[in-house]
Amino acid sequence: MSSPLRVFVISPDTRSERRFDSHITSKIELFTGIPASSQSVSVLNSEDDPTVVVQLSDDSKPLGFYSLKDWQVLKVDDLNPSASFTGQLTDVSQVEKFELSDAAYAERQDSVLTYKQRNKVGRFAPKDEQVKESVPSVDIPIGARCQVESSEPGLSKRGTVRFVGETQFASGVWVGIEYDEPFGKNNGSVKGHEYFTCRPNYGVFVKPDKVQVGDFPELDLDEEM
Question: What start and end residues bound the annotated signal peptide (predicted)?
Fold first, then answer.
């Protein structure tokens, strides 16, 4: 007894893998819904190759007569689709589409948009109010002795570095200095925020390019005079 043929059967509405005895005839209405009298059955090597190998034109001949091979394709066309439902199961051109305006969609409480808004997801995620500029590195060590550039001729403002970094009162990097004498403007605090501590009017904040770090000892009275 010969083993059954394993083939694919395709039609406008169906696709299936089937096993057939080589002695049956070629009409396969049961699997396609196309009446036997309206069927045109072709053999293809594969679904990717539309070339017709042979046409099963004689209804009285069994499948074995056409030398079918495993995994070939039986392509069933409907010669009279108006008399059957062929193509109607896959035709969606007459189906009424559900459409919703953007405004109506925005008002719905069960939509993906509402979920994203409620959970701050995607474009609704919080963003930083400001993008911080890259902060340049400053090679001014805390505790170093320094001298601050002065606009007054002959006036040396010496002190000790107490703070280097960003502040809340202005952008960029600032250097906080405790002067040796009361040439400053604060006690290390600005607008209620403490950056370092020193005596009143001994503290000042300047830009790094105004600061010269080095061996700057405190000046005594004679040197100042």
Answer: none
- d(CA 28, CA 23) in angstroms, rounded, equals 13
Parallel, antiparallel or unpaired: strands 145-148 and 73-78:
unpaired
DSSP 195: S
Residues 6+ apart with CB under 8 A from 183: 157, 201, 202, 204
Look at residue 225 and tell me if it is in a domain.
no
Q: What is the CATH number of the domain that holds 34?
A: 3.10.20.90
Identify whether the C-beta of residue 124 lies closer than 8 Å to the C-beta of residue 106: no
Strands 5-10 and 73-78: parallel
Q: 62 in the Ramachandran plot: left (φ > 0), alpha (ψ -120 to 50) or beta? A: beta
Per the confidence metrics, is the pTM higher than 0.70? no
Name the amino acid, one letter, at 99.
E
Q: Is 83 helix (H, G, I), strand (E, B) or coil?
A: helix
* Domain interval for residue 9: 5-78
Q: Tens of pLDDT along 153-207?
A: 777 799 999 999 999 999 999 999 999 999 999 999 999 999 999 999 999 999 9
Residue 152 belongs to some domain of the structure: yes
